[in-house]
Design goal:
heterodimer, A: about 325 residues, alpha/beta, Rossmann fold, six-stranded mixed β-sheet, four-stranded antiparallel β-sheet, elongated, B: mainly alpha
């Protein structure tokens, strides 16, 4: 069990903006590593992040981040770094000043602040010449980088990133993802909201699915998928005789679909009972009629979970 | 199952005192304010009357110059009335400067939606506003009590008779009167700027907040036949306050003089209204109305 001072905890948290629901009855515990918030637009991801960073107060329930409450602003914000989704900055500052200004607000000495600013700019790979230019002249990707730099500059233990990959080109995106993974591996709590589900799959230790302000699921992607029992699981079996395997699979009740892979060297099997499926597959392998090369879940990813639990229209399925 | 190395080290160096953090925002606010050529122009313009007044003090205190220029006429007296007119001139220039500077400090942040980023630092809304307030306050100090007291010191130096000690009340009056005015102006400027995100409109709105109530008060006076409508007339209220602080004898219709208590109450009420507006408007997020 992870101790309270090493987790982000939401206990029955609701947030209403007047009569508009932000999030409702969220109970959540997030440990170190990368957590991705997934949900359609307006689902409450940003509200959840604002609650996490103390920018809005919950209407009901309690939030603690590493054992700290947002009311204790000094300690709280020293431990939390936030990268807002808004493409907005205080006017008239250069990139360097923007990060430096933030560090001074954290109470760092001039010397430390300069050192940490240079370090964070290096981490996000924003070169020194660009950092000395006014932010107003930055490209969208550079603005994302400078936002990320200010979020990590003070060495927070929790990093909250609202749509941090928007506007980044593929190279910059890959660099950012590598940075998030590195920070996550080092034991930082990295909370990301993203619509780019393929990348969510690659980097996330756990996902939090949210829609309409309600928590739909949370946990490791594979665990969540296994919990979605009403949707048959899809497995890709690579073998030398996919047609024969498909015919054998159709003979058992739990198999609802078998579809040949386009390359002709595998079959997608959709099964309502994964345990039974593996048992049957074992028997087929033992018989020796089909030489099985590889077995892998085909819908054990964020995209599939999103489709199953939230649906393409954004309403929870 | 992921493996976390737990090798990440948060910052553990020394930090500055919490109370000093708003000064960071004040510093950047001043930098932003001074980055405009119009600010510099207004600043220079607001100091020109001081140069004229300095020459007047020189002429008044120099027998030869006095003889040559005003031919010994006693019209040029350096007394409480002179410093009242100096203070009034500078304070109205301060209004012009405040209406230009305050929106630059606040409307930009609100218009650019920069508050979530700023308030996700260890600084409260109060700290944020304190930083902006200090920036406006310092700017307005440059054109109000600071030059006025320099003129007072110059008069004390240039006067052939001992002058300073017998007029110490004028210096205190200048200082207190300026502080009251610039605190009020700073609060009005920030409150209006927090309400009106468009800078140009915010500038106009600051003037409107100062002068429109005077018209409303005038109408109330005419209809209700009462002097209390004058309490909405900021120029009258402030002039009466400055007169009392500098020890200038009252003039005009005595029936229209306002009690000091009423003036102070109105100023406190105006300040509290501004604080209430700021409290409602300065948030990390827009309030969504159902």
């Amino acid at each position: 069990m992870t101790p309270a001072n090493d987790t982000i905890r939401f206990e029955n948290v609701s947030k209403f903006y007047g009569e508009v629901l932000g999030v409702n009855r969220i109970t959540l515990t997030l440990g170190p590593g990368i957590t991705t918030l997934v949900g359609p637009n307006g689902s409450g991801k940003t509200t959840l992040m604002n609650l996490m960073t103390g920018l809005v107060q919950p209407s009901r329930g309690t939030i603690s981040v590493l054992g700290l409450e947002p009311a204790n602003a000094t300690q709280f914000f020293c431990n939390v770094g936030y990268c807002a989704q808004f493409d907005s900055f205080p006017r008239g500052l250069t990139g360097f000043q923007f990060v430096l200004d933030g560090l001074m607000l954290f109470g760092m000495s001039d010397e430390d602040a300069h050192g940490l600013t240079a370090e964070s700019l290096e981490r996000v790979q924003l070169d020194a010449a660009a950092a000395r230019r006014n932010i107003a002249g930055y490209s969208k990707g550079m603005r994302q980088k400078i936002r990320l730099a200010q979020a990590i500059a003070h060495h927070p233990r929790v990093l909250v990133l609202d749509e941090p990959l928007n506007g980044l080109d593929p190279m910059a995106r890959a660099e950012s993802l590598a940075l998030f993974q590195e920070l996550g591996r080092q034991g930082m709590h990295v909370v990301i909201s993203s619509h780019i589900l393929d990348e969510v799959d690659r980097i996330s230790d756990r996902v939090v699915l949210i829609t309409g302000g309600y928590l739909i699921a949370q946990g490791n992607i594979h665990e969540v998928r296994q919990e979605v029992r009403d949707k048959p699981m899809q497995v890709l079996v690579r073998c030398n005789s996919p047609e024969l395997l498909a015919s054998k699979m159709f003979a058992v009740n739990h198999c609802v679909e078998a579809r040949l892979h386009t390359d002709g060297h595998g079959v997608f099997v959709r099964t309502a009972d994964i345990d039974q499926f593996y048992r049957v597959l074992n028997e087929i392998a033992v018989e020796g009629l089909v030489k099985i090369e590889a077995v892998a879940p085909a819908d054990d990813n964020a995209n599939a979970i999103y489709q199953y639990l939230i649906g393409s229209d954004g309403s929870a399925a | 199952m992921s493996v976390f190395l737990h090798e990440y080290q948060p910052y553990s160096g020394r930090t500055t005192a919490l109370w000093s953090r708003p000064l960071v925002l004040a510093r950047y606010g001043l930098q932003e304010a001074w980055s405009s050529k119009i600010t510099i122009g207004l600043f220079v313009l607001s100091l020109l009357p001081c140069l004229v007044e300095m020459v007047m003090i020189y002429v008044a205190d120099n027998p030869v110059a006095r003889m040559l220029i005003v031919r010994g006429d006693s019209v040029l007296e350096i007394n409480e009335k002179f410093f009242l007119s100096v203070l009034e001139t500078q304070c109205w220039f301060a209004l012009v400067l405040a209406s230009w500077v305050a929106p630059r400090l606040l409307s930009f942040d609100l218009g650019d939606n920069a508050l979530p980023i700023l308030l996700s630092h260890p600084i409260t809304r109060f700290g944020y506003l304190a930083g902006k307030f200090i920036a406006v306050f310092v700017m307005l100090s440059y054109v109000t009590w600071f030059p006025c007291l320099i003129l007072f010191v110059y008069q004390s130096y240039a006067s052939p008779q001992p002058w300073a000690m017998s007029h110490l009340g004028v210096a205190i009056g200048i200082f207190v009167g300026s502080i009251v005015w610039i605190v009020l102006l700073s609060l009005v400027g920030l409150a209006v700027s927090s309400w009106v995100k468009w800078r140009v409109i915010a500038t106009g709105a600051i003037f409107a907040v100062v002068f429109v109530p005077a018209g409303v008060g005038g109408i109330a006076m005419a209809i209700l036949r009462t002097k209390w409508g004058l309490l909405l007339n900021v120029p009258v209220v402030m002039t009466e306050l400055w007169m009392r602080l500098l020890g200038v004898p009252p003039f005009g219709n005595p029936r229209l003089w306002l009690p000091t208590g009423a003036i102070i109450t109105v100023l406190i009420a105006a300040g509290l209204m501004c604080i209430a507006v700021l409290n409602a408007r300065i948030r990390a997020r827009e309030v969504v109305r159902g």
